[in-house]
Structures are given as C-alpha cells and as structure tokens.
Specification:
607 residues; single chain; 5-stranded mixed sheet; alpha+beta; 10 strands
C-alpha cells in the first residue's frame, strides 16, 4: 500500500546534528568498524549526548556532573548496561553507533561506515563545524539531493509509485498553485497549513505535481464564499476522499491512520524546510509560501530540476553524491545570476536604510566582479540587511503597543508553536524594548524576513547585549526539570566567561530566563556568583519568564508616563540581584529574595 513520506526517520533533530558531528570529528582518521562504532556511541554517552533508559541511580548520577562530560570509564559502564539490556546489541555491539552516525552520513556531513575505511568529515561537515555554514546551509544542501526512493533507505520500494525529491517537489507545487491563482486574477498566497499538511507529505511522485495543483485550486473553489463551518466540513470530507484515493482503499481504519499522521508530518516538514530560507510563513502564520527574497535562486532551481529522483547503482554511490559539496552545481552559481541576486538585494536594503534614516551603504561597482567576489558580496549584503532588520526591531520595540505584544506572547508561551524559538525571539525583542542598548544581537538563525528559523547554536550565547557602560548575554530555556541544570548550567557559565574575556573593560552580566528555575541550576549559578567559576566570580541573574515580564510591564508604565528607562537602571537591578548572593546562606535563600529586589526596584522607578 502506498505511503506518504516523513522526515522523522530520515533526519535527526537539528539541535543534535552539530554536537554529534563534533564528537565524530574526534575520531577522524580512525576506522568505523565495530570497535569504532562502539567508541562513537561511548563518546556520545561521555559527552552526555545520549542517555539510555533504565539506568540505576548510580548510572544516572554520571549525567549530573557539573562538567561538560563524564569520565570515559563511566561512559563505558553505561554502554555495558545498554548491552546487558539489549539482545540485539549483544549480537551486534556496533548497532547503536551506526544508528547514531546515520543522520550525519545521510546528510553528507561525514563518511563513516565499516566498508569505507577511515572516518572522514566532508567539506560541508567541516564548514558546519567551523561556523562557515550554518544549519540552514546544511539542510538546504541535503534537501536538494534527498530523494525517494534511494539506495540508502528501504522505506520506499522502487516499484514506480515513488519518484521525487520531496523538497524540490514542494517548491514546484507551491509555485504551480501560485501561478494558477495569478493566471485567474487572484493574489498568490502559497499553501494554507491545512493544504500543506495534506498535499506535501503525500506528494510522492513528480508526475503528480500538476494534478495536485489542480486539486488545490478546485478545493479552494468549493470552499469559496462559504461560512467557516461549511468550509471546515467541505475540507474534512475532501480529506477523507483524498486519503481513500491515495491509499486505494475504503478501509476506515487505514484512512483515519493516514489523516491523523498527516498534520504531524506536515508540521515536521515545515519546521525543517523553513531552515533552508527558501520557505517562509506569511498571513499571520497561516500560509506557507516561497521566499520572494530568494526568487532568483528558486526560479533557477525550478527551471533546472523537475524534482525527479536520480538513478544510483548503489548505496555507496548515493552517499558519495550526498556528501560531495560540489554536487549538484547550483544553476544560479554564475556571475550573471549572482548579479541578479545583488540587484534584488539592493532595493530591499535601500528601503530599510530609508525607513531607519541611516546613511546608505557604499556599494561597489560589481559589474566586472567574478563569481567568487559576487558570492562574498551577496553574503555581506545579507548580513548587512540583518543588521538593519535588527535596528528596525529596536526602533519598533520602543512603541508601547509592541511591548504589550511581547508581554502577551511571553505570558502565553506554551500556546505558541516552536516554544524554544519563540522564547528566544520575544526575549530578544523585550531586551530591545527595555532601554538604550547599543545592540541586542540574537544568535538564532533567521530567514530573509529576519524571523528565527531555529534556536541559537549550542556553542554561542543565545543573545548578546551591548551597552554604553556594561555588556551582557542572555540565555533562555524552556527546560524546567533537572535537565535544565545539566543542559544549561555549565554552558551558561562558559559562555559568560568567554564573552567577558572579549571585552574586559566593561562589567559583564548574564540574564538567565526560564519558565521556572530548577534548584540544581540555581545552586550552580549561586556558587559561580558567590564564589567563583574558573577562578573568578561571575554575575548571573536568574529570572523566571514571569519575572522578566514584570520588567516589561514596568517599562510600559514608565513609557505611558513619558519616562525613559536607561540601561544603567536595569543594571542596578542586575547588580542588586548578584550582590545579594553574599548575604544569602544558600541558593534557595538567594532565589527567594529576588522577587523582593524586583519589587523594590519597581517602587523606586515609580517614585
């Protein structure tokens, strides 16, 4: 029976790709035979990147060290525990290591298999490790090659039912629907989320793109002019008919199973596809469309790739193709296309400069630039545009109504999609609103519309904050259990120390924001603040989301009175909180005193 495609078994969560690759880098040049596979899995355990179930209290405690990793002996002990609990692992010691490395090899970041000799990190993998390529670059390079069927996976048989590159096919389908709407005089808008979830994961053959586009248009016509409930009934009836036709069955249970899975498949696909920057969400989050700022690239891609799967004679040939960063040659990687991209960027940048009232950037005459110079210019211009977008965020954040939007979003964080991303976004916007920061710099990757596509990478602060008299970083997390402690404690202190050392002329603080603060996290920070971390005391300010919201509500009241909150006033609160650790007998006492300090600060500002 025909089935939809799903990314859940193909790629791992984005946040795990880079740390897994870092661990594999330690093994570069070693053989990935059974002993190498066991070593890789053991190193993942040692770095606390993999935690099996059924651990005793003693084994669980190995994950709860204040350092980044446990000892190798402890990791080996945990691996032996895994073997005792798994008959499969007893027969094949390297099984878990091969499973863990699979996403890295599938995505072309590394070559690591028993038959290929030594572990090798590919050019793309090294670019990712070095920070030259970000998560968006990595997923784009993977998605333009990923196809079904392929020799690497047995999920989709080569029986003629499957023949597509799903990402490229999705771009084609959205483009076809947009063209159909504009042809008949309507505004193009991409696909609704419901349409995306129904039609994108079920698009398993490139020949169906045109017929799917027609079905979407016909479905819209059926719903046009109807009330909300009637539209809902029409769409639900259509879904059932579509699922029956797709599966070629009237079996109610199988139809219901497919329909119950499609929303998850669609949401997951959207989450990953957005990382590429070629897909963006519009219409208050309801429509998924092609990114107009990448129209030169998208048009070239669609002209040169019909989304048909390529033929490969073996799994090795397919994986070699996936891992080769030079393949395929992107159709816009020519001097003429690069010039078109620059020409597309310049009016966009000019609009931002005009709105912000900044001096226009001096753009060199690029008419005779070679391909490489043009490529670097495009990268520079996109970074500059993001700087302008962040300045606009700062300007807009000074509006009281905007601050109220941030407050509402943070107060309802659990109702938002992609909550960790939303927390970073609205905390960053809130910090922009609070005062006269020179720059608030979130480190999350963004699309061309400056909307975050994922959380900040693990090796950087979530948000960097620059002020006239102080500097700060801000770290946020949605974790509330003990995971908060061993995922955030050590990294937060390390990020702060590294950031401090970049500019020792200013006192540097760290604002840590979470829904609730776990006692072990607070104990770790209290020790760092009251005593030391790596030989020197730090200034860490732990706040709940609710307490951060209280700061923003105070700001609103001040703004409504026409009072400007200078950053020095905010840092007076930060200093009160960190200094109060000296008077506290323990971390719990320190934490309990923070609400009183906030209330005193608010009262002083109100007077």
């Amino acid at each position: 029976m025909k089935k939809t495609w799903s990314l859940s078994t193909t790629v791992r969560n984005p946040e795990r790709i880079l740390p897994f690759l870092r661990v594999l880098k330690e093994m570069e040049g070693e053989r990935f035979d059974e002993s190498g596979q066991v070593k890789f899995q053991t190193l993942l355990i040692q770095n606390r990147l993999y935690q099996p179930t059924g651990l005793s209290d003693t084994l669980s405690s190995y994950y709860e060290t204040i350092g980044d990793k446990m000892s190798l002996a402890q990791a080996e002990e945990i691996f032996e525990h895994m073997k005792r609990r798994s008959k499969e692992l007893q027969k094949d010691n390297g099984l878990r290591g091969r499973t863990s490395v699979a996403p890295l090899t599938k995505m072309g970041l590394a070559i690591a298999k028993k038959t290929s000799g030594e572990v090798q990190i590919t050019e793309l993998g090294n670019s990712f490790l070095d920070g030259e390529a970000d998560i968006g670059d990595v997923y784009f390079r993977f998605f333009i090659k990923w196809q079904i069927p392929n020799p690497e996976s047995k999920d989709y048989p080569q029986d003629g039912q499957y023949d597509i590159k799903p990402f490229v096919g999705a771009l084609h389908l959205i483009n076809k629907v947009n063209q159909a709407e504009t042809t008949r005089g309507n505004k193009d808008k991409g696909l609704s989320k419901d349409e995306f979830s129904l039609f994108i994961p079920s698009l398993v053959h490139h020949r169906d793109i045109n017929s799917y586009a027609e079905e979407i248009i016909n479905l819209r016509d059926l719903m046009n002019g109807k009330g909300k409930q009637e539209q809902k009934d029409i769409f639900n009836n259509y879904k059932e008919d579509f699922a029956s036709r797709f599966l070629e069955t009237d079996d109610r249970e199988k139809i219901d199973d497919l329909l119950s899975n499609l929303k998850d498949y669609g949401d997951n696909a959207l989450r990953y596809f957005r990382l590429t920057r070629y897909i963006y969400v519009r219409g208050n989050g309801y429509y998924i469309d092609l990114q107009p700022r990448r129209s030169v690239e998208i048009e070239n891609l669609l002209q040169h790739d019909d989304s048909k799967a390529l033929d490969f004679s073996s799994k090795e040939e397919y994986l070699e193709y996936i891992s080769d960063i030079s393949k395929p040659v992107l159709p816009w990687e020519t001097a003429e296309s690069y010039k078109e991209i620059v020409k597309q960027l310049l009016p966009d940048i000019s609009e931002y400069e005009t709105r912000l009232g900044v001096t226009p950037k001096d753009i060199p005459d690029f008419s005779s630039f070679d391909e490489n110079t043009l490529k670097n210019l495009i990268k520079e211009l996109r970074l500059y545009r993001r700087e302008l977008q962040e300045k606009e965020n700062h300007q807009q954040s000074q509006n009281v109504d905007k601050v109220k939007e941030y407050i509402l979003a943070l107060e309802n964080i659990y109702e938002l999609e992609s909550r960790p991303v939303a927390l970073e976004k609205y905390t960053s916007l809130g910090l922009n609103a609070l005062n006269d920061a020179l720059e608030i710099k979130p480190n999350y990757p963004v699309g061309d519309d400056n909307e975050p596509t994922f959380t900040a990478p693990a090796n950087t602060p979530d948000i960097e904050c620059y002020y006239q008299s102080h500097n700060a970083i801000c770290e946020v997390t949605m974790l509330t259990s003990r995971d908060q402690w061993y995922n955030e404690g050590q990294p937060v202190m390390r990020h702060l120390r590294d950031f401090e050392e970049k500019d020792e002329s200013k006192t540097t603080y760290c604002l840590f924001v979470a829904p609730t603060l776990h006692r072990d996290t607070v104990n770790t920070f209290w020790s760092s603040v009251k005593y030391e971390y790596e030989g020197r005391a730090q200034k860490i300010v732990p706040l709940t989301i609710g307490q951060f919201v209280e700061l923003l509500k105070t700001l609103v009241k001040l703004k409504e009175r026409g009072v400007f909150l200078e950053h020095t006033k905010l840092f007076e609160l930060y200093e009160e909180i960190t200094s109060s650790s000296s008077d506290a007998n323990n971390a719990s006492e320190w934490l309990q005193g923070i609400p009183n300090l906030i209330n005193s600060w608010k009262s002083e500002l109100a007077s």
